[in-house]
Amino acid sequence: MALSPIKTCVLGVGLAGLTFHVPFVLALPELFTLTAVLERNPQNPGGKVQQRFGVTTKIHRTVEEVVNDPEIELVIVGTPNDTHYPFAKAALEAGKHVLVDKPVTETVKEANELAAIAKEKGLVLYGYQNRRWDSDHLALKRLLSLPSSSPLSLGNLLEFESHYDRYRAGIRSSWKDSAGAVYDLGSHLLDQALKLFGRPAQITAFIQNIRGVTKPEVDDIFTIYLHYNPGTLFPNQFTVLLRSHILSVKSPQLRYAVRGTKGMFTKYGLDTQEEQLKAMSSVSSILEPSYGLEPESIYGIVENIADDGATITKTTWPSDAPGQYIGLFKNLAGAIRNNEELEVKWAETTQVIEMIELAYKSSAAGRTLEVSKV
Questions:
Q1: Strand partners for 207
Q2: What average pLDDT does this structure show over 68-85?
Q3: pTM for this prediction
Q4: CA of residue 211 relative to chain centroid, distance
Q5: Looking at the DSSP assignment, which residues form a beta bridge with residue 151?
Q6: Which residues form the Gfo/Idh/MocA-like oxidoreductase C-terminal domain (predicted)?
Q7: Considering only CA atoms, which of 158, 157, 139, 226 is closest in space to residue 190?
């Protein structure tokens, strides 16, 4: 017997709600029903969802209305960072499953409190780390999984460099510019790195406001080093470098630079899904074969050193598996309806917040900090 679609409410109809959440809820009618949205000041009877997608849904103006709506089973939190904890807590306490956009909370303490409530009530609590389904990240994972005998193997990794750079001299009319780059883009970079390599031994961070166009304490660039001791992953010292620069004049921007004892992987340009989601005229585009495909012009390059220690062979490494944020939503539905294992575990998203807190402490203190063992 087919299970009924999950009755869903999306909190917030800004960039997160209209780009990353509502389209997937609508594109998977067998799994979800868009029962309501939170929109505090709709400018027309149907609100932004009807204006953008031609769909009519219930509009709640307050979180209290949402949590008191008995129809709603799942709440997706796509509002500003400082509301994630109180909104998610209210939804969980009302007996609703919750998907929280990144960063899931502002502190580890808050993340742990939400986990305790979800566990007590037997509810699904899921962190929206969608960039695990980027096309270039999937291609990178495939490369790193090659056996050492492969001629394209990078060998033992020495350094993993991951970037989200851009050029933006001014600020946008968005709350994101007051949230800070580490909580925004750093959440993605840290999640990908921690999922690939696990907990580091130490962390060193340099966090700044370079433009001076927002409050001095609101960072717009960062460099975060994760240090791994020899023998934990590889025989050698291994370093992860995570970087975001707001005044980077480059097109396309550097995305990955991975150095190993036998080769190097270099990748420029970003996954295409965000731009496709912003531009699509119909959510059915998500299900088309062209969705999430990268142009060949930004495929990565693998360079391998020959046995002579001098000859270098260059090989294109394609991002041939399309990016698929839809995989996160399918897994979320499976967890709610069929008790499937979460592909993004709450403990993993909590660890991201832990590293963010340590990064700010490291930068403020001007020194490398130890990361406690679990």
A1: 222
A2: 97
A3: 0.95
A4: 25
A5: none
A6: 153-371
A7: 226
